[in-house]
What we know:
The chain has helices at residues 41-49, 71-74, 91-100, 106-120, 135-147, 165-182, 193-199, 217-222, 227-232; strands spanning 3-12, 15-25, 30-34, 56-61, 64-65, 76-79, 153-157, 186-190, 202-207, 210-215, 239-250, 253-258, 262-267, 280-285, 291-293, 300-311, 314-320, 325-330, 341-345, 352-354.
Amino acid sequence: MTIELKSLTKRFGALTAVDSVDFDVGDGEVLCLLGPSGCGKTTTLRMIAGLEYATEGDVVLQGKRVNELAPRDRNVAMSFQFYALYPSLTVAENLAFPLHAEKMSKSEIDKRVQKISDTLQLGSILGRRPGQLAEGEKQRVAVGRSIIRDPTCFLFDEPLSRLDVQLREEMRGEIKEVLQDLSRPTVIVTHDQLEALTMADRIAVMRDGRIEQVDTPHNVFQRPSNLFVAGFIGTPQMNLLPATLTDLKGDGVAEFAVEGNQSMIIEVDRRVEELARGAKVTLGIRPRNLEISREPSADGLSTKIDMVEPMGAETLVHLKDGHHDLRLVTDWRVPLAEGDHVHTKFPPKMTHIFTEDEQLLRTK
Length: 364
Ligand SMILES: Nc1ncnc2c1ncn2[C@@H]1O[C@H](COP(=O)(O)OP(=O)(O)OP(=O)(O)O)[C@@H](O)[C@H]1O
């Protein structure tokens, strides 16, 4: 492991900005720190870079504890945005710029520029100035400039936040490819879940200074370890319904009383059998997993269509069951009218169960 954080904690006076954070990042691995504003992402990154000192815990880079080392002695590359090229310098000069501070020979600098230019396919534009580049090209040069120093690890803080949507989409894939080729550990801070889901090998979801889950993008989405992660990851947001387990029918089939007096019988995780009747739970189901039908049945709730929002290939339907708002995404072609009464079905095994302590009831 080349970046290891051990019980890393940062306090600013009475505020614990980062609270006993543990994770490690291997060579060639991209870990995204994801979470709402103020949850401690940037402070964690700054402690790895040495721009903030840890109050407690350790930062270990390539097996060596670096807590007391100054940023320049850690040989990490930290960049905030892939932007701001020097307009009067050529692409080659922009790329070489960070190397001048390192007192490198001209031939070594040329070699590095050549290598980066090959990796990012900048060969044909090396002699141009930023004003003569397309936006996507400028971005590639900016990425190149931030990785040319060959540090032990890369740290990026919201690297794509200033870009427009289309460029962001292009750059996500491109940066991921480049980082994979470089075989260094990378930590990227973002509050944009799409960025994390597409660029990360693993995502660390943070809240209030703590890590809630560190896992692959697939697992963070499919098996959120608690209610916070479930609600934070996924757009539109997962439907979360407070309910009480009223009966167990065997084989993971259970009856729930959903707040507001409706009950339904659905197939869920078999571990539901470990809960006692009367247990308070939260049922979580993604909007794309809900189904609607005109016929009432026991495996769902009767609802009324509150709003229909076309989203191109899919339609977002807002439903009300009297007490809750449910979101459903469908490509259903049958016309749906606002005010219609429909039955909202919870298909087998699509519903997550969160226990009273907000943790996911896990499959064995
Ligand atoms: N130098 C500082 N002095 C005092 N408090 C600070 C300092 N730096 C950060 N904080 C506080 O620590 C907490 C975590 O901040 P941090 O910038 O790490 O969050 P973040 O998750 O990166 O947020 P954002 O996405 O908004 O950048 C916040 O409450 C912030 O106000």
